[in-house]
Amino acid sequence: MYITLTNIAEAHKGNKIAINTDLIATVFETTSDRGSGVLENVTYVFCPPHGTWEVQESLTEVVTELNALNWNKK
Questions:
Q1: What is the pLDDT averaged over residues 43-52?
Q2: 17, 27, 30, 52: which has the fewest Cβ within 10 Å?
Q3: CA–CA gap between residue 62 and residue 68 (Å, rounded)
Q4: How high is the mean pLDDT of the chain?
Q5: Cα dist. 37→28, 34, 54, 67 in Å?
Q6: Residue 38: which domain range?
Q7: Of 49, 7, 55, which is closest to residue 30 (Cα–Cα)?
């Protein structure tokens, strides 16, 4: 199963990405200085061994979507 999120990394900002939910290990949210001196909320989706995706959806939005997928698997 995949969830679709919005990439917030500068080089790919606004592009949609689909992430395999079986690969997601952790999700966390923080405020980050994106280099312009402006703080921005960023959610990090860690998918080892591939790395971390930076997305614009909040931690709550990502976890809610993951939980809904897992609920539908039952």
A1: 94
A2: 30
A3: 10
A4: 91
A5: 22, 7, 18, 35
A6: 2-73
A7: 55
The predicted pLDDT at position 18 comes to 96
Asked if the model's pLDDT at residue 31 lies above 80, the reply is: yes
**Is there a contact between 3 and 62 (Cβ–Cβ < 8 Å)?**
yes
What the block records as the tokens of 17 is 């990405």
Q: Are 53 and 7 in contact (CB under 8 A)?
A: yes
What's the chain look like in SS3?
Answer: CEEEEEECCHHHCCCEEEEEHHHCCEEEEEEEECCCCCEEEEEEEEECCCEEEEECCCHHHHHHHHHHHHHHHC
Q: How high is the pLDDT of residue 37?
A: 83
Residues 5-28: tens digit of each pLDDT: 999 998 999 999 999 999 999 999
**C-alpha span between 40 and 32 (Å, rounded):** 5
